[in-house]
Amino acid sequence: MAGAVEAKLAELGLTLPDVVPPLASYQPAVRSGVYVYTSGQLPMVDGKLAVTGKVGAEVTPDEAKELAKTCALNALAAVKSVAGDLDRIARVVKVTGFVASAADFTGQPGVVNGASELLGAVLGDKGVHARSAVGVAVLPLDAPVEVEVQVELVDA
User: I need a surface site. Which of 9, 15, 40, 90 has the fewest CB within 10 A?
Assistant: First the structure.
């Protein structure tokens, strides 16, 4: 039975995806004490990237913002895989977003807002977090965006 967080996702018309399998030698998420750290999550849907390229060139900022939202959904799936239940999230502590950017693109914060806004919509005050939005030259598989999340759990 889905908890309150997954019910909120459904209310928003969203479904928690399956955990994206690792592309290399790492785990999608690990727990240390009351914290869960996700690996960088790409905007994978059904095992594929829908869009590739640099933001500000082949990918528009609005497209990239939607992709960051997908990354955040994938991060929540990774959190659930080690926490067991998303209702155990006490708060999102930190979000780091990486944006594969054209040389003159400076709108990384707006792109990563896709992830931040999703976490706020789903988790309310528990979704408010510290954040970094970083422009990079290239990401794995030529993904436009990658997001990692750190959450604190209610110890149970």
Answer: 15
